[in-house]
Amino acid sequence: MSELGSTVQKKKKQSPSLKARALRLLSMREYSRKGLAAKLEESAARMLKLKTVGEDSEEIAPTNSLTSQIEAVLDDFEARGWLSDERFAEALVRRRSERFGTRKIQDELTQAGVDSSKTVALLKTLKETEYQRAYELWLRKFGALPTEQKERARQYRFLASKGFSSAVVSKVVAGRPD
Known about the structure:
mainly alpha
């Protein structure tokens, strides 16, 4: 083996910086600010755990310092346009709109920490197409109007559990056009 190869193996693998981890995560998919912060905190906690288990006795950063470092990285990424709650919201709406109603998507956006003022236009568009999306989902799943009350209730529960409004679900299950 060459001299260079043996020295590389002897060195410990250095963990990537906070910025590098954030960039790697963002290169795979869009994240909300809150979601990326949670991922970075989780990753940092894992790294700290590995450092304490290993023989390395490096100084461990306090959690408030870590939080401020994460916030600085997120602010930098937002300033550069790499991190955007609006883009995250658009991607989530695109991914979920075929299978879920406005209510469920709105709950997911709220849970992800996206400000509701940033998603007003997206949710308005979703509300306009809610009947069509519910009808297409119902058609793929059931395809026929229910003949019994038990089947009607089953279809109603299915669409309601997907986050569609009760008015839209009633119209779809009853077979009334919008």
